[in-house]
Amino acid sequence: MSRIWTSITGTGAALPGRAVSNAELALQLAERGVETSDEWIVSRTGIRQRYLADPSLTTSALGASAARAALEAAGVQAAALDLIVLATSTPDQIFPSTACLVQDELGAGGAAAFDVQAVCSGFVYGLAIADAMIRTGVYRRALVIGAEIFSRILDWSDRTTCVLFGDGAGAVVLEAAETPGILGARLHADGSQSRILCTAGRVTQGAVQGDPFLRMDGQAVFKLAVNVLDSSAREVMADAQLGIEAIDWLIPHQANVRILSATARKLGVPEGKVILTVDQHGNTSAASVPLALDLAVRDGRVRPGQHVLLQGVGGGFTWGSVLVRF
Ligand code: UT7
User: Fold this and answer.
1) pLDDT for 221-239, tens place per residue?
2) Domains of the chain, residue spans
3) Does pTM surpass 0.90?
4) CB 96 within 8 A of CB 60
5) Of the listed 100, 120, 162, 198, which one is catalytic?
């Protein structure tokens, strides 16, 4: 029996509302007595703008928009899906999963649907899980979505975090194929580092207990991110028996342009092969990798036959890489 592979046959993206520039955000924050500037944000992070959702928008609606674009690109009907995996840390509600709400919105009744919680690594985790499920032969068409409205868990009085994040969603359609496709995937976590990036609050007895806002030790996250992105890339390329030079496009989680540059330098990947969207979107957590992939597919940079390395890193601490031949 020939081996089953997983192929990415469509990508999609959705960005809410309108772009908010650093200058506009700095003005809004100044009204609250929070001091920041376009110069600080650009020089420390590379971020120039981010998209922020209106209060009425839900993560499921944003995810469904990206999913519809990916289904259209793949030429796949929602009713033909048999699996939906959605990565988010900002779900619509505690339960049911946001994936189930998206399934209903798309009219994909019957497809298995569940959420993955791996923060900024969530999309890469979801992709690896869906790939493994397709390779069993039981599931043939899957949707993997990263969707976030991080603006809702930001403390707008904390300048060390609130300028960094944005809202958005990205999605891919996966189909069983006779040729690769996804060449390899590796996931990791280190729960002992959970405190360096977390939203620790919980709902108990009808009230939020603990801190409901995102908190981060930026420098600790920075150092860990560069190290694990490097080791994870090397691990997946070695699994696939390919050298680093075989990477045509590197798409790491878009947290900070300095992390992307340091990772590329450490790996020996030319900066021209790194897809960069953090300048336009800010850090959109689980949505950042599929948003960047969709952009690079649609603008023609990612072409058939090329090797693309997708990488996640974030709260948990979690990280992982997926190598795809397009
Ligand atoms: O997706 C999750 C992954 N998250 C990340 O990857 C984030 C990783 N970390 C980072 O990207 C960086 O550590 C940051 C961008 C968060 C911070 O950059 P940094 O170069 O590590 O700055 P810092 O924390 O050392 O702060 C330098 C100064 C401090 O002032 P003092 O103590 O030197 O007087 C901060 O108070 O910058 C100040 N500062 C700000 N100033 C203006 C911090 N935030 C701001 C701000 N505007 N928004």
Assistant:
1) 999 999 999 999 999 999 9
2) 5-177, 182-325
3) yes
4) no
5) 120
